[in-house]
User: Fold this.
Amino acid sequence: MSVLEIRDLHVSVGEGDDAKEILRGVDLTIRSGETHAIMGPNGSGKSTLAYSIAGHPKYTVTKGSVTLDGEDVLAMSVDERARAGLFLAMQYPVEVPGVSVSNFLRTAATAVKGEAPKLRTWVKDVKTEMAGLEMDPAFAERNVNEGFSGGEKKRHEILQMRLLKPKIAVLDETDSGLDVDALRIVSEGVNRTRSDSDLGVLLITHYTRILRYIKPDFVHVFIAGRFVEEGGPELADKLESEGYAAYVKDSAEVAAAEAAAL
Amino acid sequence: MPESSETTTLAGELFAPGVGAQAGPPTTPAAGTGSAGEAAPGAHSSGGPTPTGSPAERFTATDPEAFGDPTGREEDWRFTPMRRIRPLLQGAPSDAALEWDADLPDGVELTRVEAGDPLLKGLPEPADRLAALTRQRSGGAAVVRVPAEAQPDRPVTLRLTGTGGDDVVWGQLVVEVGAFAQVTVVLDHSGSARYSGGVSVLAGDGAHVRLVSVQDWAPGSVHGGQYDTVVGRDATVEQVVVTLGGDLVRLVSNVTYAGPGGTAELLGVYFADETQHQEHRLWVDHSVPHCRSNVLYKGALQGEQAHTVWVGDVRIRPAAVGTETYELNRNLVLTDGARADSVPNLEIETGEIVGAGHASATGRFDDEQLFYLCSRGIDAETARRLVVRGFFADVVQRIGVPELQERLMTSVEARLGALPGLADQPVEV
Assistant:
């Protein structure tokens, strides 16, 4: 049983006078086995939240805390966070020329598990998981993300999640840019992990489409750097029919009122 | 990757300008040098009688004075730090020598010919002043002879060690490989020297020759040289250039074909640390039908004022129908303050070819790559090693001498700054 706790998280980008606050007090608790959907319009700071949890150097935490089972995540380096059990499936996975998928996966697994996986079972595991995501075995010999289609990149992200077995996975717009087939394959991979492990999922998305495949336990609406509403799966249905307009309007009014008060 | 660009030129495009980050302007003849039309009276030229525009018809001569004294503005020298190569260009005669340690398999002969020997007269001519000086000052040549049809059981290894001193060492080596022989020759340069060495590989018909030249010089060393390759009918020559050490290394590799059906593979890896200048210039002259050439050079740079230059000229003359050629240069810039120049040039004078292309890309090992690998639990040092090892692997594997491959990768990794404890995490290529 693991728990990721985010408390009053404030995050900015840029330095000095150019610093801009993106996250403005985020509170969230994710436990093993739970799936939380975070929904919000473009520019609301959803991806910033994902990257801040993973420790991207571009983002500066100015206030608040993130803990995993009581351990201070913000004090950890990027690789330490991954080894502690956090995983970020990226919206735009990065190309790494000259490094094969198979070498990359094995190196990552070695780092996360603390020892090299036994070769025979490892090869079998990789093959099985690749088949589960309908990936061609030849994929393993290609360079990481180099020349991958959008769907291949996302499947590769989920493959890593399957093999590295994190405690908490943050899926940052994993559904964006996918056709229906790829969306189904990727979603099945996530659902398989939810059913055969205790994974906690933070599913960040702009659209409700993926929520028809991955049923969330909780839905949070994220506007202008903070949560403005939380509820069950029914909230996603409401968003699907009404969109973000009401929230964005509220947010703009609040911001205007705040500005006037200063 | 930011700062990267890639182009592929197909048959039919007559001339493609240089591409790649920080690539200079297309190769054009500089005033007073480089074109046959402006040659000094009496100079020899292996090129045609009239310049054909850009890139320039190439000027060659045995007389150093035919080239004039380079100022650094000439196309051939515009990337080279002239102050640092000046000791070689001054051309003072000397008796200084490298220390030779030769490992010769049975049947392979190492001899010497004196200046004026017919063998030397038949070599491809020098293409710049330094090469001409080298031919003149070396006063003869060491000759490695591999008889026809020989298949030595191990590589011919020449360990050439610099013993220090300010005097320039002038050297000329000829590797003469008989028809249908198969041989690997390793030139392993180390120690401290100011060295200018010409190397000519003459591959007989149907021969298969691999020449590996390692520049693992001590800091402060300066090494210039022209490497000529004459590919016999149906012969294959692989040249692997590995430049790691020294203050300045500038190698000019030229390929010509003596008959149809020849193949030249020009492979290179280089790793420049702060203030190192590593320059590799290639010139492949397709003048006979049905030959192939493939160029693959990869370099990594780190540290302030690390500078690498790769210039790849390929010319397909009207007679060279059925030519197939491709050249690729990739540079991996590991830190700020390093500069990689990459200038491919392809000139095609016949449409009757199988294929011709080039690509050049210079990219950074950027924070996003590092972040991606680290976000999967891989520590930063291992991530760097993984990327650089992977980057070089496809060229290094082609050396075909396992001990040497291992040594080079170890050397590269040492320079990346391995942390203690990494040995517990084997990284496989």
